[in-house]
Design brief:
Distance between the termini: 91 Å
Bound molecules: adenosine-5'-diphosphate, zinc ion
Radius of gyration: 30 Å
Strand order of the largest sheet: 6-8-9-10-7-11
Number of helices: 21
Number of strands: 14
Strand content: 5-15%
Oligomer: single chain
Amino acid sequence: MKLLHTYQNIFGVVLIVAVVVGIITAAYFRGRPSPEFVEYAVFIEAVDAGQVESVVLSSGAEISFTLENDDATFVTNNPRREDLKEFLLLSGVSVTERAPAGDGFIQLGFMLVVLAVVVFVLHRRSGGVRAKSGFNAEAVNIENSSKLCGFDDIAGNVEAKESVRDIVDYLREPSKYARYGARMPKGILLHGKPGTGKTLMARAMAGEAGVPFYAVSGSDFVQMYVGVGAARVRELFKKAREAGRGVIFIDEIDALGKKRSDGLNGNDEREQTLNALLTEMQGFCDKAGIIVIAATNRPDTLDEALLRPGRFDRRVEIGLPDLAARKQIIALHAANKPIAPETDMEKLAVDTVFFSGAMLEGLLNDAAINAAKRGVEAIEPTDIATAYYTALAGSEKKDRSGIREQERAVTAWHESGHALAATLLNPENRVTKVTIIPTTSGAGGFCVNIPPERMYWTKKDLEEQIMVNLAGRCAEELHFGVEGVTTGASNDIEKATQTAMQYVAKFGMGEGIVDRIALKDDHGVNKEVAQLTARLYKETKNLLKQNYSKLEALANMLLEKETLDGEDILSIAA
Ligand code: ADP
Ligand code: ZN
């Protein structure tokens, strides 16, 4: 018994217990009486006949269901059809989603075994109870400044570059600033949408200054064991200090720097890691020449502690590229690719409003892949067009056999409604594509309307925006009748409501010029939003009614060609 007192043996016991529990759990759940199996075709028949009451979807090999007026549970093959849920919902079946129970428990048992083995091995390797917090060198990306890029590799973002120029200068020559007693920021927070080039900016700063670049991600620090993240932070800073000057880049800082106010008393591990980071930053002396750059796309979720003076007290926004910047980014990423002369890159820049730098890069890369697949000389307009619409809407579904004629018609009228309303309401809107080809992201079809680039939106702009959103449903109603409208408009209605809500409660365009969100006053807002959308719905319906022949022509052309471009639409709608 004496041996049991050593840690080695405690781990042995843990291992054995886990293995036994694992095996028992797996055996128990395997041994449960299994529900009756029904052929998938029979199941679909039952759905069509309205006999199925509820279905539990899972990612496993089987899905289970119950029948009306019957307590028994049945199972059938899981077809893993993407649109099964929608189909069931439309057939009036109640649907829940769940991880497969039996499999899940078997997996749990299996995981316990694996966990025990991992703990055991870790323990053996470190020769103690506490897994040694050895910093995994592979988690940090250290880049030599010679490989790094500079500001010339960043298109646009002129203000952002300007606002970090002094930091670059400081990194080059820390003593210059120390001599004047200047206190430089220790941390910079880059915030902006994903793919806008925050990482690029941090790398370029290191590159411009000629210092090493240490890149980690906030999520790397959030580990299973308390204390490991904090130790990692300390080691990272130690490494940087030993090397002298440098840029430490922490991507996704929100993973460890989230506000602590979320009710739960926080996550010990995250808090320790965060505190370690703040302590290390505090510990730098001003002439160290090390700067920490953190990136996030959710600055509003960050813990206040991170933003105090002496921490990440300089905030730099990295914005989406404007037209000129998009042109530059496209030129930058097209430079190493063969582009056919008839390809219009100017137009691509114009059409990619709201695209991030990363999306533009991805688009050009996809276009190159398309051209390579077709084996043509150079990237042609069609390769770019395909990549463009894929980026907008997810790839076109290859298998269209499951779509019923009736559904195609609904989609055609619905999308024609959007396209026609957008074109008629404002000649500045450019409807560049309408299609009834479904996307993998779940839409039956879509309509691309590029609104003009604006700094401010007028009341009229917002009303038109709501009308364009509602126009899909209006067209359905006009053609199929009040009873014939479908669930396909849910997303449009959500958007219209959001805009109407802001119109009334935030922009003071309804009754009363106050920010009623700030006042936390729900009084009458909901009613006003409902009245506004009802009025605009009526106006949209009138507009489409007056132009019914155009609407019909568009829908028919869509049914025939599946996809219409800007010229097709103008030829009918204008
Ligand atoms: P973030 O860190 O903001 O998510 P990244 O810096 O990882 O974005 O950007 C991903 C890629 O997108 C970059 O490597 C670059 O190729 C491209 N990119 C993004 N913004 C720009 C830009 N302003 N100029 C040039 N390329 C850009
Ligand atoms: Zn729609």
